Amino acid sequence: MYKGYLCLVLHAHLPYVRHLDDEHCLEERWFYEAVTETYLPLIDVIRKLLEDNVDFRLTISLSPTLISMMNDELLMHRYKNHLEELIELAEKELARTRNMPEFHYTAQMYERRFTNAYRLLFDTYQGSLIKAFRQLFDSGKLELITTCATHGYLPLLGVQDEPIRAQIAVGVNLFEETFGRRPQGMWLPECAYNPGHDHILKEFGIRYFFTDTHGIMYASRRPRYGVYAPIYCPGSAVAAFGRDVESSKQVWSAQEGYPGDPDYREFYRDIGYDLDYDYIKDYIHPEGIRLDTGIKYYRITGKGEYKEPYQPDWAQEKAALHAGNFMFNREKQIAHLAGVFDRKPIVVAPYDAELFGHWWFEGPDFLNYLLRKIHYDQKIFRTATASEYLDEYPVNQVSLPNPSSWGHKGYNEVWLEGSNDWIYRHLHKAGERMVDMANRHLQADDTRRRIMNQAARELLLAQSSDWAFIMRTGTMVNYAVRRTKQHIHNFTRLYYLMQEGRQDEEWLQSLERSNNLFPRIDYRIYASNR
Question: Of 168, 226, 312, 383, which one has the fewest beta carbons inside 10 Å?
Fold first, then answer.
């Protein structure tokens, strides 16, 4: 008899980046890199676990913007070209390193990985990442959930409920259109909870969400089981699960956690910067901008500039060792908790999915070893989903979670400080105008309906938490500022077209082609009296 559960949650999200007229857009590479280094490796790990009859549970949150990019024919066509170029570069690397034994073995690894990724996506799944995730979802071992439409930071979106409701509704509706069922859980963007939002989640059939540790520990009333059992929000009875600090830190922290081990691959050393320009020029930006190719030959080694060659076999051994250590720690943790609880504890370990494979190259291997070891090597706990836990324990303590996020210092500071605070007066005003427009035009002809639907898309895109986050971190700031201003500008122009009863068909069509996510969106989701 198992004494408790481990709930592994991976949140997969990218901002919506699709530039119709620029096939070499640097920001689109965020998507390409994540597909190659995170999503396809995770799909492959899950497939092989299923083939080997390993009993496991894993939760992955797919954001609506990410689903939209996975479903986009243009982006997937560009990704196919990107992957073909990677395979070509890897083959060139085999020739270049043939007399360099310290690098050649690693070059062979990259050639195999890229070729296998191509076969997996374009042969096994006919070029559809959504098909892959749908099949794995249907296995019953993987639970898919979602987040808000464009990952809007809900506590700061405005004083009205309608824009918040729209973010949740559009996300849930797209998930249902894509996978044929509603999600049971919701990843609140940035784990940011604000009291009352759970009632909106309840309206759309959401059973649970996740918060950071202090969201539960500072709840009112004090949680009897800490973060090791969910609490029900008063009135809505939506369950809140809290993040376990210990398990998170072991994986998350590059300094104290596993990813910083010197045997793992160094992320910040890529042949796109290391090799001669004439050799690498066809695989970087056409304007000569050097960038990451994904082929990296060095291991972390230490904190200095000197790096030693990467040894794939050493890294695999270390990933297996760390998986065993993680499992051992959970065994002791759960056995202890079970001894003092009158129910089985659940340890919730949520992470950004892109940590596994993109930032931490060996992350998918770590997960593979971990899930196999949990299945074969111990009987203290098993992996479970939040839904399964609620099925086993439908009665839970009622307590109001504390406002919180998992950002730096735990509250709103990352998304509301000197670099990005200017955006909110514009988002709030646009939100008010969208609600007003929807209330006044519940019935509209085709053109006016298209204008308001596109206005809704532009508002949602402007609300993405990614833009404020990027401004705060100081990377790609100009891009984040430009995207925010452009979507607000587009929204405002659409709003005045409605106000003045004018049309601009050519411009409207260009927006519909460029910012084409959520094709079935209905602007009336913003109406106050639905």
Answer: 226
| Contact indicator for 239, 208 with CB cutoff of 8 Å | yes
What span, in angstroms and rounded, lies between the C-alpha atoms of 514 and 461? 12
Active site residue 44: no
Q: Structure tokens of 14?
A: 């990218």
Long-range contacts, 311-314 (Cβ 8 Å, 24+):
311/106, 311/263, 312/105, 312/106, 312/109, 314/263
CB under 8 Å, gap of 24 or more: what pairs does 227-230 form? Answer: 227/348, 228/4, 228/337, 228/341, 228/345, 228/346, 228/347, 229/341, 229/343, 229/345, 229/346, 229/393, 229/396, 229/397, 230/346, 230/386, 230/389, 230/390, 230/396
Query: What is the tens place of the pLDDT at every residue in 19-44?
Result: 998 889 999 999 999 999 999 999 99
Residue 248 — pLDDT band, cuts 50, 70, 90?
confident
What is the helix, strand, coil percentage profile of the chain, to 5? 55, 10, 35
Mark whether 413 is an active-site residue.
no
CB 165 within 8 A of CB 185: no
Whether 155 and 403 have beta carbons less than 8 Å apart is answered as: yes
Q: Give the pLDDT confidence score for residue 530 in this predicted structure.
A: 63
Domain residue ranges in the chain = 4-409, 416-526
**Global confidence as pTM:** 0.97
Q: How far apart are CA 107 and CA 445, in angstroms?
A: 59
Structure tokens at 498: 């409605």
pLDDT at 143: 98
Phi/psi at 463 (nearest 5 deg)?
-80, -5
Instruction: Say how far apart CA 227 and CA 45 lie, in whole Å.
Output: 29
Q: Return the beta strands (E) in 96-237 as ranges.
A: 142-147, 185-187, 208-211, 231-232
CA 390, CA 208: separation in Å to the nearest integer? Answer: 9
Residue 24 identity (one-letter amino acid): H
Place of tokens 């939100």: 431
Catalytic residue among 28, 33, 190, 244: 190
CATH number for domain 416-526, candidates 1.20.1430.10, 3.80.30.20, 3.40.50.150, 2.40.40.10: 1.20.1430.10
pLDDT at position 529 is 77
Count other C-beta atoms under 10 Å from residue 312's C-beta.
Answer: 18
3-class DSSP assignment, residue 239: strand
**How is residue 245 written in tokens?**
């600090």
Summarize pLDDT for 368-389 with one digit per residue, the tens: 999 999 999 999 999 999 999 9
Q: Are strands 208-211 and 239-242 parallel, antiparallel or unpaired?
A: parallel
With H, G, I as helix, E, B as strand and everything else as coil, classify residue 22. Answer: coil
Architecture per CATH, domain 4-409, reads as Alpha-Beta Barrel (3.20)
* CA 447 – CA 453 distance, rounded (Å): 10
The catalytically annotated residue of 352, 436, 512, 522 is 352
